[in-house]
Fold:
Amino acid sequence: MSLQTLPVTEELVRYIIAHGVAETPAMVQLRADTAKLANAQMQISSEQGQFMRVLIELIGATRAIEVGTFTGYSALAVATALPEDGTLICCDISDEHASMARAAWQTAGVAHKIDLRIAPGARTLQALIDDGHAGAFDFAFVDADKPGYGAYFDLLMQLVRPGGVITFDNTLAAGRVVDLTNQTEYAAAIRAFNDTVAQDDRVTSCIVPIGDGFTMAVKRRRDPGRGAK
Structure:
């Protein structure tokens, strides 16, 4: 029993991966290909991918949304966990890495589950709402521009069903969230977002210290309106 989170050393991370991550060959290859890119740090860790796969199966998700796709690893993790008739809508503002993503999805046999839409994420989410898809999704993952997190949260709260899960990456901002002298746009945006989620009684939320911080917010089945928890 422990009263606080165990500090995670590199040795423990290796142990966690060895005993708690089951990547498919396509996922291993995509991580290796992405590692060659100058901005490879934008990819989520294998532990996060595995964690999302568990969440997908846990809640029985069939319809999911992702905001921020990059080379497609997180989408691959989610799509792999979805049932054969599942659907994942991916939102990204650039198709620079779309060919790499699509090739990996095709190799993994999940391309038919994924609908990649190139446009500002908020625009795509609003279009889904306007087209009558409010409350139609089970799971959402956001790893995009940090100042946009608040807007994505509000839009996804409309799109995800009661009991559904909305997740966000990088919510510890490499530890900068606790350094109040750091007032960069990135750190300030994450602090503001974390405050917003913590005070929103429409969700039950937590920050999991995996990767760079992983926020999970479960949309409550009864909506009491905004207010302090």
Remarks:
- Residues 169 and 214 are 5 Å apart (CA to CA).
- The mean pLDDT is 94.
